[in-house]
Design the sequence.
């Protein structure tokens, strides 16, 4: 049975290079997990090869790791379900292959040959197909030529089926037009903020009854979060740095090693045009000076582009003999001719960049700290081995703190904890996961520090008595009372506001926002402000709350989408393409699911576990 390979995106060559040469997984399972096992089971009459599953799993893991920006463990991979996702993808692919076979679709030998000879991995130094390279690459990946060519044939036939299914699958243009009309519509609106300083009467002091009622009606505000009582030991480079002595010669060496950082010489952003002779260079410079031509035209006449003549950021020394000429300019401009290693040249300076030289004395304190931190990191690496041994031997956190430089502390930790070790994401993650059954284990911090923790107990959420939160209750009651007064005032004003009676006519500071679309925002206002302006009838005012008062907003004008605008037309085209792509993907997914449901699927769970263990280093 031919070994099925994971199909690629649009170019098979890219897939082969990545699949064969980077992941190196296509040959996995050619000899099997135990030397004979080649498949995981069957979908209809087609075999689900180990290599196709391993490729799919590697692809799923690579995509997910790219999204989250870090590698995942085998345990995380299985918890997320990437192995099941990969298996489902392979099963769906093989179901389509079965349907292709049943329909009698196939790709001819000529097409397979075209694909093989176009793959760069199979080409020689002359760019032509190399029969020996072809055989060598396949042999290196434990593949037979017949199996590989069958995989290409299957992939081509599957694409024929896909194209047939998706032919004519497009969304009506009106659909995209409606969405673009919604997205491209803009509005002009005005808004005003009502704050405590516009209230005529003073805010009263709350009575005892008011505070008791507020405390009773808002228990969540005065209830402590459920917390974990955690003991921990930790050590960071900053804890050790102050005690580390740094000799003067080491500071000098560090300064020299970072001279590029501390010594930045003056430079110029330069473009250079080389000429065959001094006379041609002088004539070009004279024409530019007389303004009978431009630097751009000189570049074009030399058969070059501005990109060709761009030297970038250059120091005087880097410019060589031309350096003094170029650096004689006190502002951007054209100068020359000046001699270079390539001949006479005319230069254009686009920007003058001042240097920045920081003396050793100016950065001495920073150097001392940086060197000390580097040495502290090395010390912590040595200490970590000792701590690991102590914890593995059953030592308590208290024991470790007594025998090492690690500091012992405790915290009542909850999800909103801040300060000290709670500012480290690594500690937050460990604290959230720790249970009473866990033994302290050494973990790393983002600054190369180390820590270990222990759960001592659970602290339930608890309503604090009014006596202990009186000041907070007074502040909250007062803020609520002010907000209620402002809201009442805004609701009296809003019905009177119109296009003929703007906000300013009520003594409010009116802010004008013009040509705003739905995705815009206004600094210092709630995110709902712009959307409220779009949801409110033209010429009518709406009221919404804010952190520091109440806002009244009124739409002043509606600007519908201009479909003659090139930007709107471009948006409609882009959105239309995305809608068509999404629709096609959904249609083909439904088709694939139907094909899968029409065949028998037999997957050997024992073989699957063996493959997973081998792929994930578990056996």
Sequence:
């Amino acid at each position: 049975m031919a070994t099925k390979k994971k199909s690629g995106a649009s170019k098979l060559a890219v897939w082969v290079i990545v699949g064969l040469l980077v992941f190196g997984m296509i040959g996995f399972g050619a000899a099997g997990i135990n030397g004979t096992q080649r498949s995981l089971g069957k979908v209809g009459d087609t075999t689900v090869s180990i290599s196709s599953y391993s490729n799919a799993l590697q692809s799923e893991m690579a995509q997910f790791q790219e999204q989250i920006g870090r590698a995942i463990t085998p345990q995380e991979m299985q918890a997320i379900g990437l192995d099941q996702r990969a298996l489902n993808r392979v099963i769906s692919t093989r179901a389509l292959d079965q349907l292709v076979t049943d329909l009698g679709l196939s790709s001819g030998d000529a097409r397979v040959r075209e694909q093989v000879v176009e793959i760069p991995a199979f080409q020689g130094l002359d760019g032509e197909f190399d029969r020996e390279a072809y055989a060598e690459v396949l042999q290196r990946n434990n593949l037979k030529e017949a199996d590989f060519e069958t995989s290409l044939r299957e992939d081509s036939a599957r694409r024929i089926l896909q194209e047939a299914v998706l032919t004519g699958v497009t969304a009506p243009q009106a659909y995209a037009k409606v969405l673009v009309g919604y997205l491209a519509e803009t509005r002009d609106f005005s808004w005003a903020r009502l704050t405590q300083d516009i209230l005529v009467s003073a805010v009263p002091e709350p009575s005892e009854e008011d505070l008791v009622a507020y405390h009773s009606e808002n228990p969540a505000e005065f209830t402590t979060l459920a917390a974990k009582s955690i003991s921990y030991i930790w050590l960071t480079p900053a804890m050790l740095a102050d005690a580390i002595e740094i000799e003067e010669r080491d500071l000098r060496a560090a300064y020299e090693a970072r001279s590029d950082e501390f010594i930045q010489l003056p430079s110029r952003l330069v473009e250079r045009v080389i000429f065959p002779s001094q006379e041609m260079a002088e004539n070009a410079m004279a024409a530019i000076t007389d303004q009978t031509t431009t630097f751009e035209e000189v570049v074009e006449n030399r058969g070059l582009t501005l990109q060709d003549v761009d030297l970038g950021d250059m120091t005087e020394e880097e410019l060589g003999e031309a350096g003094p000429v170029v650096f004689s300019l006190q502002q951007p401009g054209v100068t020359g001719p000046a001699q270079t290693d390539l001949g006479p040249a005319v230069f254009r300076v686009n920007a003058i960049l001042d240097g920045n030289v920081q003396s050793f004395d100016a950065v001495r304190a920073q150097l001392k700290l940086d060197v000390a931190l580097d040495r502290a990191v090395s010390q912590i690496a040595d200490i970590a081995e000792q701590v690991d041994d102590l914890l593995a031997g059953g030592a308590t956190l208290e024991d470790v703190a007594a025998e090492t430089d690690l500091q012992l502390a405790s915290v009542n930790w909850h999800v909103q904890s801040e300060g000290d070790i709670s500012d480290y994401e690594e500690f937050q993650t460990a604290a959230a996961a720790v249970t009473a059954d866990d033994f302290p284990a050494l973990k790393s911090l983002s600054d190369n520090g180390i820590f270990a923790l222990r759960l001592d107990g659970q602290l339930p959420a608890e309503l604090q008595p009014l006596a202990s939160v009186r000041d907070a209750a007074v502040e909250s009651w007062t803020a609520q009372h002010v907000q209620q007064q402002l809201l009442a005032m805004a609701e009296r004003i809003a019905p009177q506001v119109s296009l003929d009676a703007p906000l300013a006519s009520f003594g409010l500071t009116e802010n004008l926002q013009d040509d705003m679309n739905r995705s815009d925002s206004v600094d210092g206002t709630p995110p709902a402000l712009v959307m409220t302006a779009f949801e409110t009838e033209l010429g009518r005012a709406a009221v919404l709350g804010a952190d520091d008062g109440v806002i009244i907003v009124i739409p002043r004008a509606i600007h519908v989408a201009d479909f003659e605008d090139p930007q709107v037309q471009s948006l409609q085209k882009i959105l239309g393409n995305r809608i068509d792509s999404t629709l096609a993907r959904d249609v083909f997914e439904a088709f694939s699911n139907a094909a899968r449901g029409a065949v028998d699927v037999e997957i050997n769970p024992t073989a699957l576990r063996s493959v997973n263990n081998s792929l994930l280093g578990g056996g």
In short: The chain has four domains: 12-167+595-615, 186-218+470-559, 227-237+378-460, 266-354. Residues 1-36 have pLDDT under 50 and may be disordered. The longest helix spans residues 360-392. The CA atoms of residues 184 and 561 lie 5 Å apart.
